[in-house]
Specification:
Layout: H1 8-30, E1 33-47, E2 50-57, E3 66-69, E4 73-80, E5 88-91, E6 117-123, E7 129-135, E8 145-151, E9 165-174, H2 179-189, E10 198-201, E11 218-221, E12 226-233, E13 239-244, E14 249-254, E15 257-264, E16 266-269, E17 274-280, E18 288-297, E19 309-315, E20 328-330, H3 340-349, E21 368-380, E22 394-400, E23 403-405, H4 412-417, E24 450-452, E25 455-458, E26 463-470, E27 479-483, E28 488-495, E29 513-515, E30 517-520, E31 524-531, E32 536-542, H5 545-550, E33 553-558
Parallel strand pairs: 1-4, 3-8, 9-12, 11-19, 18-20, 21-26, 23-24, 25-33
Antiparallel strand pairs: 1-2, 4-6, 5-7, 7-8, 9-10, 12-17, 13-16, 13-18, 14-15, 14-17, 18-19, 21-22, 26-31, 27-30, 27-32, 28-29, 28-31, 32-33
């Protein structure tokens, strides 16, 4: 029997080659490390013929893109050059065991003080798509925000047609006044805060506003191509409808989770949400430009910024067309301001892919069930003063299960980790309303909230079902609730009062939408489920900042699991002090 002997040099070369292949595979699996520096500066910006000093990252407005791949480690050094305390939240990033990098001030960290810095260090595990980063203290996120773009791992493709080009479209809200002065005055007087002066697309208000024809975002496209639009709502206080004149779009992702594709000509996006859509352009050049418009959805009582931001979708001309001056400008039709039915129909169409590659691991049963009311309320005026709330003896407030959350003066995660909870927080957050009432009917006589820093403690990997019920106290209203550190499955939603005997029978446990921010319907309820598989302290709050400022927020404490990779990592050495 013949045997072949390779020369020693060849076999050692083969070993070296296979070693390098293995290294490449490991590197691909582990991902790269990406370094960013975010300098928080003052920065003069002019909009609506009004110049003011804003706070921004690297003097960019909106802020810089943070780009990474699934599996990458991200290290962001944030340096504070302004007088305000600041922290940055990486909205939608799971932060598995790295709660110290989540960013909400007084929840997972003390804020970064003037001339101080903090390094946010986290790994993007099992996520790909569009998210956002923003300041997470008071109303600083009005101008401190930017996109997070997570590309699939190398050699992985999208589960939809490869786009010709990818475009980020960030919605924002512009105030001529300093937003910090706006909220501080409102909290002092007890009134609703003054509303914004414009909405923006990529920082620009658009030509429908006073002296803003030059401050209009333009998207130039080629005929017969597919574009991936990454839509992000970074507005402070407003859910937005969006539409492009004479075009349909295909929704393919929400909150960095792929969806079953569906076509629509208009959509809703709440603050904190992202939506990726495919735009197929017309096959040939048309003698027209098309407005892309966004305006608010608002079903509550009180004032709001009832204006419209627009950008222009412009087709690139064939060479013999030089001028775009005479193009017809076509406008889209947006739903009415209070189109609650459209909102329910649209959100009902969102479904997870729920296939082998992208499964929907929704809890089929729940170890713990919670029922939270979310809505507005009142706080009594300080003695011997008058206020400008619902009446002159009260201030506007907001709550979860009638508890209006008070931010502590040190970070809850620090207090929890070092066993120093005394005087910082309690663990007695009510699992259901303390006084049941007809939530969407006539409001109770006493609408005062109770104040406290209360939390819920969950053992590791508990399967949780949470029903959030809007109330009609001071008017029913939609509330986009954001849960930090988690995605959750939206298993049900409906109008009126949740019926625990009938409604669960209709829960979708097959392909529910998975996301990090979801709207509790105006005058209705939302049911979500998730596994508490990420140890730490996790903030949950309304992403309308006015409601969050009034106290519509709470925190979950998830205990460590038994395995080393199921435990909260120790705090970094540069963790800011209060």
């Amino acid at each position: 029997m013949a045997t072949s002997h390779l020369p020693p040099s060849f076999s050692s070369m083969a070993m070296i080659f296979s070693f390098f292949v293995l290294l490449l595979l490991l590197e691909n699996a582990a991902g790269e490390t990406r370094h960013y520096t975010f300098n928080i500066h003052y920065h003069n910006v002019t909009r609506l013929c009004h110049t003011r000093t804003i706070l921004s990252v690297n003097r960019q407005f909106p802020g810089p893109r943070l780009v990474a791949r699934e599996g990458d480690r991200v290290i962001v050094k944030v340096v504070n050059h302004i007088a305000n305390n600041v922290s940055i939240h990486w909205h939608g990033i799971r932060q598995l065991t790295t709660g110290w990098a989540d960013g909400p001030s007084y929840i997972t960290q003390c804020p970064i003080q003037t001339n101080q810095s903090y390094i946010y260090n986290f790994t993007i595990t099992g996520q790909r798509g569009t998210l956002l980063w923003h300041a997470h203290i008071s109303w600083l996120r009005a101008t401190i925000y930017g996109p997070i773009i997570i590309l699939p791992k190398r050699n992985e493709s999208y589960p939809f047609e490869k786009p010709h080009k990818e475009v980020t479209i960030m919605f924002g809200e512009w105030f001529n006044a300093d937003p910090e002065a706006v909220i501080s005055q409102a909290l002092q007087t007890g009134a609703g805060p003054n509303v914004s002066d414009a909405y923006t697309i990529n920082g620009l208000p658009g030509l429908l506003y006073n002296c803003s024809s030059k401050d209009t975002y333009k998207l130039k496209v080629k005929p017969g191509k597919t574009y991936l639009l990454r839509l992000i709502n970074a507005a402070l206080n407003d859910e937005l409808f969006f539409s492009i004149a004479n075009h349909t779009i295909t929704v393919v992702e929400g909150d960095a989770i792929y969806t079953k594709p569906f076509e629509t000509d208009k959509l809703l996006i709440t603050p904190g949400q992202t939506t990726n859509v495919l735009l197929k352009t017309k096959p040939e050049f048309l003698n027209a430009s098309f407005l892309m418009a966004a305006r608010p959805y608002f079903a509550g009582q009180g004032t709001f910024d009832n204006s419209t931001t627009v950008g222009i979708l412009e087709y690139e001309h064939p060479s013999h067309h030089k001028s775009s001056k005479n193009l017809t400008l076509l406008q889209p039709t947006l739903p009415p301001i209070n189109a609650t039915e459209f909102v329910a129909n649209f959100t009902g169409k969102l479904r997870s892919l729920a296939n082998v590659k992208f499964p929907a691991n929704v809890p089929k049963t729940a170890d713990k069930k919670f029922f939270f009311t979310v809505g507005l309320g009142t706080s009594p005026c300080p003695k011997n003063t008058t206020c400008q709330g619902p009446n002159n003896s009260s201030k506007f407030a907001a709550s979860v299960n009638n508890v209006s959350f008070a931010l502590p003066s040190v970070a809850i995660l620090q207090a929890y980790y070092f066993g120093q909870s005394n005087g910082v927080y309690t663990t007695d957050f009510p699992t259901q309303p303390l006084t049941p009432f007809n939530y969407t009917g006539t409001a109770p006589n006493n609408t005062n909230v109770i104040n406290g820093t209360r939390t819920v403690v969950l053992p590791f990997n508990t399967s949780v079902e949470l029903v959030m019920q809007d109330t009609s106290i001071l008017g029913a209203e939609s509330h986009p609730l954001h849960l930090h550190g988690y995605n959750f499955f939206v298993v049900g939603q409906g109008f009126g009062n949740f019926d625990p005997n009938k409604d669960p029978a209709n829960f979708n446990l097959v392909d529910p939408m998975e996301r990090n921010t979801a709207g509790v319907p105006s005058g209705g309820w939302l049911a979500i489920r998730f596994f508490a598989d990420n140890p730490g302290v996790w903030f949950m709050h309304c992403h309308l900042d006015v409601h969050s400022s009034w106290g519509l927020k709470m925190a979950w404490i998830v205990l460590d699991g038994p395995q080393p990779n199921q435990k909260l990592q120790p705090p970094p050495s540069d963790l800011p002090q209060c």
